[in-house]
Amino acid sequence: MFHFANPEYLYGLIVLPLLVLLYIYTSFQRVNKELRWGSRKMLKSLVPGISVWRPLTKFTLLLSAFSVVLCDACSSAAGSAADNKGKIGY
User: Phi and psi at residue 74, in whole multiples of 5°?
Assistant: First the structure.
């Protein structure tokens, strides 16, 4: 059976869906704020270098890193039993 040394850190994975919902909410808020300034076509001509994929990629990498850190903090307990055999000889 697979055991974790610190399973309490797995509760941190509950935060991931909340972060996704927060990202979706803030992205809709950002789009609404941009549309208050003008149409998308006009904004695209005013700010030609803005990226659509960069914030999404950045957020995806952040979520991946957070989940890897949490899983690493739990660390597998496989092989963590202490070896009680004493050294014989030199």
Answer: -70, -30
Q: Are 23 and 59 in contact (CB under 8 A)?
A: yes
Token pair for 51: 């990226």
Continuous H helices in 1-90 = 15-37, 40-46, 53-74
What is the spatial distance between Cα 26 and Cα 38, in angstroms, rounded to a whole number?
A: 19
Q: How far apart are CA 5 and CA 8, in angstroms?
A: 9
What burial class does residue 83 get, using C-beta atoms within 10 Å of its C-beta: 0-12 exposed, 13-18 middle, 19+ buried? exposed
Q: What is the rounded CA–CA span in Å between residue 16 and residue 6?
A: 19
pLDDT digits (tens, 9 = 90+) for 31-88: 899 889 888 888 888 888 888 899 999 999 999 999 999 888 887 666 555 555 666 7
